[in-house]
Design goal:
Length: 253
Amino acid sequence: MTLPRFPDLSSRTALVTGGAEGIGRAIVEAFATQGTTVAFLDLNATLGEALASDLVAAGARVVFHSVDLREVGATQEAIRALAADLGPFSICVNNAGHDERHRFDEVTEAYWDDRFAVNLRPMMFVSQGVAPGMRALGGGAIVNVGSTSWIQGAPGLIAYTTAKSAVIGFTRSLARELGPDGIRVNCVTPGWVMTERQRKMWWTPEKWAAAEARQSIKGEILPEDIAAMVLFLSSDAARRCTGQNYIVDAGVV
Ligand SMILES: NC(=O)c1ccc[n+]([C@@H]2O[C@H](COP(=O)([O-])OP(=O)(O)OC[C@H]3O[C@@H](n4cnc5c(N)ncnc54)[C@H](O)[C@@H]3O)[C@@H](O)[C@H]2O)c1
């Protein structure tokens, strides 16, 4: 698909978490295409470095930093170092997440905490890391990535769905916290998006047929479809949008 252009994004600096693969990768590429300066964080150093060097070779301003977002101190230190190099971030996309399956009866306290440390906690502390810079700039946009899995009551990943449901509450409260500083906070909630990981781990002809039957409009949802919504919410075109949840699921929930 051809992404729309948002001219104001060419003078912005964006931070994207989990940008090495999947939806995050599409978001990094989409910002790069807009001329946005992009820094992205990811656990996967091999894929992250390869993506950054490809985009830089194509003329984009892109920087990768490898970090495990479960390490709050290291993550905030990385954000400080990147902002010192690139200038403060006016856009932050809290995208990283992991939908590892687990059985309800086997969830331990440590596993539950770890799933929240991956799927929810970074949103809080990455936002805390970028907020001072956004205040200094006079405003900014934070976009948090949720999931329709909890709305559907999907079984087999209760720690993930519970953490993802909290993204909405976090978004609404943070929008109130940061609104007076001109910082908008929104949530994008994807349906089933055909990333490489989803195709490899979960896609079967039967599952896809069942999923597509539930969609009001037919056809796969691609990472670029989520990136398009993220671009819009990050841009001045969305200057009166905050505290909201935007579902991109082809009309399932
Ligand atoms: N693909 C879907 O169908 C779908 C549906 C709904 C919501 N989502 C959400 O979209 C977001 C992106 O998902 P995706 O499908 O692109 O996943 P993905 O697994 O393809 O990519 C996730 C990226 O995040 C990184 N990451 C994971 N844990 C990390 C950590 N602790 N520290 C640093 N980086 C880490 C991974 O290395 C990877 O590059 C997630 O928040 C996910 O919950 C995805």
